[in-house]
Specification:
About 30% of the residues lie in helices and about 25% in strands. The protein has helices at about 15-25, 55-60, 60-65, 110-120, 130-140, 145-155, 200-205, 240-245, 260-270, 290-300, 320-325, 335-340, 355-365, 405-410, 420-430, 440, 455-465, and strands at about 5-10, 35-40, 45-50, 70-75, 90-95, 100-110, 160-165, 170-175, 185-190, 190-195, 210, 215-220, 225-230, 240, 250-255, 255, 280, 305-310, 330-335, 345-350, 370-375, 415-420, 435. By secondary structure, it is of the alpha+beta class. Helix 13 (about 355-365) links the parallel strand 20 and strand 21. Helix 1 (about 15-25) crosses helix 7 (about 200-205) and helix 5 (about 130-140) crosses helix 6.
Length: about 475
């Protein structure tokens, strides 16, 4: 399962906004590692620099020095709509002169194909295969005059998830969909304001957290002032996986620091699925806090048992077949002296397709572990996501076609326990109405097309060539 994207925006005349954006994107790198980009505006014009790769690979001192202005937005991408190609990197600029807008988007638009066809019929030209370009053209095509009304017009027509930063020649906008599927927050620093997918980005640049941007809210920053415009929202639907996996544990979402929430998930697992064991480990890094929570609640000692190569998967150098066959060994290395002969509780954040977990279990067996008791922080994932998480089709989801006992046998564990939906809600200490939990229960916050292809817009683009 992969994250969606990270977005950031800053309006601050007294700061080097491109450099601030660069460091904020570093803090949000976990949300996407395919490409990175920064767009800036100086009141008269805007410019963008973006490319495939990590933030550190895309930007140099020379590139940053050429991005001058007092407003900026930035983006880290994991592709959930449109292929991973250079034409699809963000931010993108659509329009010209005073009618130009730059956009950085986190989420997924369900009705993007329909809107794209409609906009093409109106004479709009598309250069990417992303739903982000659909959003930008929808705003540009609005019959309204002000940018706020144009954005509001687009919001009324968009179906799906969108937390985004927008840039005009003189303003920074932050917009969150009426369901609040993806997080977005506001902060201030040195007479200016910043917005970010997660509060950890604010911490890294020395900005002070003010509040989260509300579902259905349009925020505009110009001339040092913040203007807020809100749309009524019938239902909240924050993705529960922001708490389980996506967001960094030092981020605050819905007023909750994620690290103790993840520890509480581990404690809940210990309460619901106790077992006699010698050690508890968490699969690094996303399940480390939950592993500590399980250990504290159960009284079983916690230990590091797997060390993670944090740079694996973040390179464009393709491994040869011999290295590729090593599989999970490229990512994790066990500590046999700590594990040999032990009865082990292994806490992980989720099981999606069931392709990685058997390899982890096998790796631990080879390290001499006597018993392996898998404990999963998420309930069984039985339904796919259509709102910005590149997860799997329903046929690929192992829990949609196997029972818990069948999954246990498939992964090779001695026992398997999932945290219940009620246990998860108890751990995050928020009402069920706060979250989208469709991947567990099939209750989507909006109507969805049950078979969607992330490359559908790309296929449509080829049809129009």
């Amino acid at each position: 399962m992969h994250e969606s994207c990270g977005v950031f925006g800053v309006y601050c005349p007294d700061e080097d906004v491109s450099r601030l954006t660069y460091f904020a994107l570093f803090a949000l790198q976990h949300r996407g590692q395919e490409s990175a980009g920064i767009a800036v505006a100086d009141g008269l014009r805007m410019q963008v620099t973006s490319d495939m790769g990590l933030v550190s690979q895309v930007f140099t001192e020379e590139r940053l020095s050429q991005l001058s202005g007092y407003i900026a937005i930035g983006h880290n991408r994991y592709s959930t709509r449109g292929s991973s190609r250079v034409i699809n990197v963000q931010p993108i600029i659509v329009g010209r002169g005073a009618n130009a807008i730059a956009i950085a988007h986190n989420g997924n638009i369900i009705n993007a194909e329909f809107l794209r066809e409609e906009l093409i019929a109106q004479g709009h030209t598309f250069h990417t295969s992303t739903d982000t370009e659909v959003i930008a053209n929808l705003i540009i095509s609005s019959p309204e005059k002000s940018w706020v009304d144009r954005i509001r017009y687009a919001m009324h027509r968009l179906q799906g998830a969108f937390s985004m930063c927008l840039l005009t020649n003189d303003s920074l906008f932050a917009v969150r969909d009426p369901w609040g599927v993806r997080p977005l927050c506001l902060g201030h620093m040195n007479g200016g304001h910043v917005v970010a997918s997660e509060s950890c980005a604010l911490d890294h640049i020395g900005a002070e957290f003010i509040r989260e941007i509300e579902p259905g809210e349009i925020l505009r920053v110009r001339q040092g002032e913040v203007e807020s415009y809100r749309e009524d929202s019938d239902r909240k639907a924050l993705c529960i996986f922001e708490y389980i996996y996506f967001a960094r544990p030092d981020s605050v979402i819905n007023g909750k620091l994620l690290y103790p929430a993840r520890m509480a998930m581990g404690a809940g697992l210990s309460e619901e699925h106790p077992v006699d064991a010698d050690l508890v480990i968490g699969v690094p890094d996303s399940a480390t806090a939950a592993g500590i929570g399980y250990a504290r609640h159960s009284g079983i000692p916690f230990s590091e048992g797997l060390l993670k190569n944090r740079y694996m998967g973040r390179t464009f150098i393709e491994p040869d077949q011999r290295i590729r066959d090593l599989g999970v060994r490229l990512k994790f290395n066990p500590l046999p002296q700590m594990l040999e002969g032990k009865r082990l509780v292994v806490v992980d954040d989720s099981i999606v397709r069931g392709t990685t977990t058997p390899k982890v279990v096998n790796l631990l067996r080879r390290a001499g572990v006597k018993e392996i008791h898998m404990r999963i922080c998420a309930p069984p994932i039985r339904y796919p996501c259509f709102l910005g998480v590149d997860m799997a089709t329903r046929q690929e989801l192992i829990a949609s076609r196997k029972t818990v006992e069948e999954i246990r046998e498939f992964i090779g564990a001695d026992s398997l326990g999932y945290l219940s939906v009620d246990g998860l809600l108890k751990a995050v200490d928020l009402p069920r109405e706060t979250f989208c939990m469709a991947c567990f229960v099939g209750d989507y916050p909006m109507p969805v097309q049950l078979q969607m292809d992330k490359l559908a817009l790309e296929d449509s683009a080829l049809d129009h060539e």
